[in-house]
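Hey,

Quick one before I head out. I ran the complex with magnesium ion overnight. Inputs first:
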Amino acid sequence: MTAAQDDAIRLFRSLTGSAPAGVWSAPGRANLIGEHTDYNEGFVLPFAIAQRTFAAVGPRDDERIRVASTFSDEQVEVALDELDGLFSGPAGEAVRSGAVAEWAAYPLGVAWAALAARPDARATGLDIAIASDVPVGAGLSSSAAIEGAAAGALSDLWSLDLSLIDMAKIGRRAENEAVGAPTGIMDQVASVMGRVDAATFLDCRTLETRSVDLGLAGEGLALLVIDTRVTHAHSTGGYGDRRAACERGAAALGVPMLRDLGTDDLERARRTLDDETFRRVRHIVTENQRVLDAVRTLDASGPRAIGDLLVASHASMRDDFEISVPELDAAVDASLAAGAIGARMTGGGFGGSAIALVERAAVDAVSRAVAAAFDAAGFRAPHLFTVEPSEGVRRDA
Ligand code: ADP
Ligand code: MG
């Protein structure tokens, strides 16, 4: 049993004086390739990681739901029939008005969205105790992990029989409407559908998914995350600006979404669009193609063959989408110079992490080389750690 699972059970006991009926968990995630493609209804290829959020849960004999987390000193308790009043208003209103602490809106929002999806459910009151070893706010989606753990517990304890994609949709609805964070569905799908040594291909338009074997174990490879610890104040503005450029490009080219364009359309795009909008469009169109190519390449040739796609993805984000920063470029350049098979920034950009595909035996050497490059450039020391593609939502006890 991991420390976090133990912590969740201990918190449940201190809350209720008894043992939980069960423990459910869901992992964080990282994105292998496919950046900013989600809101263009394109393709992504994320994977679940070994770090997980655990929910120790037991029924109550009243109709109330109480949540507690090692993340916070406060507990939040509401009646089941209050959930709708809290969360069915404007997105995030219950959080903004202070009626619900933000962290509690994740699990309570999942309960609300689950009941909305299954109005005939015979829901009982619950105590929910949460603990996690997913780093919060580090780009590894602790938010999808807490949503997945809560959805797994409710599905079993309320006999909702939710499919994995149902759980992902419920998690996204909780995050979008109860918390008020406008995110796509990639994080939730990656978390709940994870499999050991595999990534999850997701078509963000059709929500079609496919588990894609990575084969890292057999090839003696590892995935190294380089957290630059850079957070840029303009990341929110930059994100909105890129979304707007994508919408502008799609409208000018007469398609509903950039997903509807292929690399064959780029010549026409170049003639039609101003240079900046063209480069934004080219990133999305080529990135979608790289995700498809990565899936095909993994299937046909295994993980050693995707290095160039990772490197091309980074160059596209650096030069066309312009969302990289010097620290991310240094992380990619230094890891490639030290022998990484491929590397790219991962996540929304303007800071955050890069990911490098490296020989297991070379993890230490690549890590040292990256740390030295950061030191030489006068950057803050990065956090370096490997991530293990792991199992999705599950019942642990
Ligand atoms: P990320 O998903 O990248 O870690 P987000 O801002 O999307 O960052 O989600 C982080 C938020 O999710 C936290 O601020 C907190 O409100 C909630 N959260 C995550 N993990 C936990 C936890 N173990 N207990 C309570 N709340 C959590
Ligand atoms: Mg998140």
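The pocket of magnesium ion (ligand 2) is lined by residues 141, 143, 187 (CB under 6 Å).

Talk tomorrow,
K.
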